[in-house]
């Protein structure tokens, strides 16, 4: 809008209540996602610009958004210690900086904070910026290569970001949380532990039983030997003497 003053001040909005999936920065007109997880489709957004003159004038246009999940594995999230509204105002400069340092074409897929309420978007000092890179052959750069180069250039990137935001900036790579064990895996581990414990108890029982039987056998043999020594004339069940044959026994 070439007008000056309030007549040239534009505020942007989405028409037809499309706030569930997308939102728009009313000052810059930048569109970003709110929740499109699991969707693969093309959506037409009606965007309206309104000036702030006494007789407000409006204009509308259609923005076509294509949601494609094929690139999801190569998207990398960069965490900036800046408020989301500050980051959104400087997206073009941040994008050019990353392209210069990484030597790839960079696209900013999404910018969000932990707070999804629009009214609270300037209250969090942490912003998550999802990016994807394409090489000179217009092929997607793998997430691992993108992360590697971001780490290699981290010091230079942070130094240039300080110039853009006029304050100290940290840019870290968000790593996905470790996958928690599934209920099936937990059940398998528990059953395996119980099985091992059961086998250990069973083996201990067998060993203890064998030792007891051996101990009783030794006690019995020892008693028989002692009985034979005390009564050398005693005969065993086969009729043979248990004790020494000499000296001979005489009956009183």
TrEMBL record:
> What keywords were assigned to this record?
Calcium, Coiled coil, Membrane, Repeat, Transmembrane, Transmembrane helix
> Taking the first listed entry, what is the main subcellular location of this protein, grouped into a coarse class?
membrane
Q: Where in the cell is it found?
A: Membrane
Spell out the SMART domains in the cross-references.
Answer: CA (SM00112)
What stretches pass through the bilayer? 185-208
GO terms for biological process? cell migration; homophilic cell adhesion via plasma membrane adhesion molecules
According to the lineage, what is the superkingdom?
Eukaryota
User: What's in the GO CC field?
Assistant: catenin complex
Molecular function per GO: beta-catenin binding; cadherin binding; calcium ion binding
Domain named Cadherin is located at 1-94
**Per the record, a Pfam family?**
Cadherin
UniProt key word Repeat: yes
Q: Which parts of the chain are coiled coil?
A: 136-167
The molecule here is called FAT4 protein
Q: Which gene encodes it?
A: Fat4
